[in-house]
Structure formats: C-alpha cells, structure tokens
Design a protein that fits this description.
Layout (H helix, E strand, L loop, with lengths): L2 H19 L3 H12 L2 H14 L21 H13 L3 E5 L5 H13 L3 E6 L38 E5 L2 H4 L7 E6 L5 H11 L3 E9 L7 H8 L4 E5 L8 E7 L14
Helix pairs in contact: 1-2, 1-4, 2-4, 4-5, 7-8
This protein binds S-adenosylmethionine.
C-alpha cells in the first residue's frame, strides 16, 4: 500500500486511540509526528535491515532502505504512541520474533527516559518442536545466523530484558507489576487465555492489555467479555484486507463496568 494512504489511515487510528483514553487528539497526533520525524530511529532500523538482509530477505527485510516508519504496520506505530502516552514503568510482551514491536516500544521508552521492556520468547528455534496454530507457517523460524529480536539495534537495548523459554513457564516467575502487557506469542485460543490468566494478578490497576492477530482466535475478545472490559479493535491499515488485527483494553476505561456485552 502507498505510504501516503497508510499515513492517513494511521492518523485515523491515532484519533481512535486518543478518544478511547479521553486524551487530547492534537497532542496524541503530535506523538505520531515526533516518530515520523525521528531520523535516529529510522537510521537504526536501516542499519539493522542492511545487516540482517544477508540472512533474511522476507517481509520488511526485502527493502534496501526505508524512507519512513509508515512501511511498518499500524500496530508498531500504535505501540510507540501508547508508550509515549502512558509512560509505563514496566512493559511486558510475549512473542518477539524479529523484534518489530520490540524496537518501537524501546524507542518510545528511550524517548520517555524511563521504563523497561521485558520480552518473553522461546529459546533458539525451540519453536520447530511445538504444535502451533495452523496459520503460523514457517514465518517465525529464526534464520540461521540471527537470534530473536534481530531488528533491535544495540542502541535500543539498554531498557530491554529478553527472557527465554515457554511463556507459560517463564511468566509465572515474573515478579514486577505490569503497566502494559502485549500478547504476540502463540495465538492458539487456550494458549492466549492461559497467558492472560497468568499475568492478570500482576497487572497494575491502571494497566493496558493488548493482543495481536485477533482474527486467529476469539481469546482476547473472551478475556474482555469475561472481565467486562471495553476493547478497542484496530484493523491492519489495509495491508491485509482490513482484518481486525490488534486489540487493546484499558482496565480503567469508564465504560468497563457499564458493559453488558454478553447476551445483548
Ligand atoms: C508472531 S511472532 C512475534 C512477532 C513480533 N511481536 C513482531 O513484532 O514482529 C510470535 C513469536 O512468539 C514466539 N512464541 C511462540 N510460542 C511461544 C511460547 N510458547 N512461549 C514464548 N514465545 C513463544 C515465537 O518464537 C515467535 O518469535
């Protein structure tokens, strides 16, 4: 899709995000603009792409060099804006692969000047032994010569801890309060439910939860219904035919307790 059209659609999504949190739209759009103007981050991405392309040429790694972050899906941009808005101390994500989300989250934390990202992913190529969701294909297998998070530039790693192993085993050991949680590991229905069950008591009162690939399972929607949370559902910015892609819910959204989503 044309980068200009992506930008216009991204702006609409940012408007939705501002509305959902009751935040001033212009200020939130300004955060997106700040990301678009961030030449240091774009340079770091291009350096990583150039390094990784010898091992991996799929997706974003096909490009010689990017002239804008708009080449990435809206989810990455949304995460940047969210982290700048919410100023989390502790962000937890499951599922890193090449580190697209990771890089954008870390860039926002760097700009915030505070906060830490804890990323959970499997040990190297453990994924090949697992019985995964049928939509996975081979797109998550780390290419030889690279490791999880291979798009994350060294400059961004100060506020980053990568925890290796099956998330159902590693997440229970996590002992910090979580301000933002993003699920993007195994999207099988019961797997997702279990991740949310594990992290639920660790969430701060004002936390925000997210999940990727909503169209793979109804699990995130189920979490929202059972916990009476108003979800914000974001579509891909047209790149994959407007699929419902990213779900977000804020534990303090004023409409949460008024919800009667079941049986309505
Ligand atoms: C869709 S990819 C993540 C994409 C990434 N968030 C991004 O921004 O591009 C899914 C990742 O989940 C990891 N994963 C799958 N099953 C897992 C499990 N049981 N525990 C931890 N990580 C898992 C895979 O190794 C893979 O890196």
């Amino acid at each position: 899709m044309d980068a200009f059209i992506c930008r216009e659609i991204n702006k609409m999504t940012i408007t939705l995000l501002a509305d959902y949190f009751g935040a001033p739209e212009l200020e939130i759009q300004q955060i997106y603009q700040e990301l678009l103007d961030d030449k240091q981050f774009l340079g770091e991405i291009n350096q990583q792409l150039a390094f990784c392309r010898q091992y991996h040429q799929k997706g974003i790694f096909r490009h010689e060099s990017l002239d804008s972050v708009d080449w990435f899906g809206i989810q990455r941009i949304l995460l940047y804006v969210l982290v700048r808005m919410r100023q989390p101390e502790v962000f937890v994500e499951t599922g890193v692969f090449y580190g697209g989300n990771t890089a954008f989250i870390l860039n926002a934390l760097r700009r915030n000047g505070k906060g830490h990202l804890y990323s959970f992913d499997l040990a190297a190529n453990e994924i090949q032994d697992l019985n995964r969701h049928h939509l996975v294909g081979d797109s998550e297998i780390i290419p030889a010569g690279l490791d999880v998070g291979f798009m994350v530039h060294e400059n961004l790693k100060k506020a980053w801890t990568l925890i290796r192993g099956h998330s159902h085993q590693t997440l229970p050991l996590f002992d910090k309060q979580i301000d933002i949680f993003m699920h993007d590991s195994d999207h099988a229905h019961n797997f997702v439910l279990r991740e949310f069950e594990i992290i639920w008591p660790k969430l701060s009162e004002n936390a925000v939860i997210l999940a990727d690939d909503l169209n793979w399972a109804n699990a995130f929607f189920q979490v929202c219904v059972e916990r009476r949370l108003l979800p914000l559902i974001i579509t891909d910015n047209g790149k994959s035919g407007l699929l419902a892609r990213t779900g977000l819910a804020w534990l303090q959204h004023p409409a949460n307790t008024k919800l009667d989503m079941v049986g309505g």
